[in-house]
From TrEMBL:
Record organism: Podila minutissima
Name this polypeptide is given: VOC domain-containing protein
Domain spans labelled VOC: 8-122
Tree of life domain: Eukaryota
Gene3D superfamilies: 2,3-Dihydroxybiphenyl 1,2-Dioxygenase, domain 1 (3.10.180.10)
């Protein structure tokens, strides 16, 4: 059994204003780039999973006001895929960011709702 204090994430839920636009973005980002699989696809929500972790994206109407404000930033660590196109708006170009770690290579970008995301390759992590 994994130690719950180890920092593993079970799931993340995001709200969106336009599920069709978000589905297209996350199908590419999570599906094509990172190998996640769609495990639920409803008119109001889509959920992706890989290795015991999942991420769901749902319309604002399906998420109460508390949860709609919780997530505005999260990280996804992708082994060496930071240079590939994300079909999002790039905020900070793919580059080494030595202020974070010696071999920290990342790209920062936004999804269709402006949620800032980071794709990282950190050698030895």
């Amino acid at each position: 059994m994994t130690n719950p204090a180890s920092g593993l994430i079970n799931h993340i839920s995001l709200s969106c204003s336009d599920l069709a636009k978000s589905r297209k973005f996350y199908d590419f980002f999570l599906g094509e780039l990172l190998g996640y699989h769609t495990i639920m696809d409803q008119p109001y929500c889509v959920m992706y999973a890989k290795g015991g972790a999942s991420l769901s994206v749902a319309t604002h109407d399906e998420i109460d006001q508390y949860h709609a404000k919780i997530v505005d930033f999260y990280k996804i660590h992708g082994g060496g895929t930071a240079e590939k196109s994300t079909h999002g708006h790039v905020v900070d170009a793919p580059s080494l960011y030595p202020q974070y770690a010696k071999h920290y290579y990342a790209v920062f970008f936004t999804d269709p709702d402006g949620i800032k995301l980071e794709l990282v390759y950190n050698e030895g992590y």
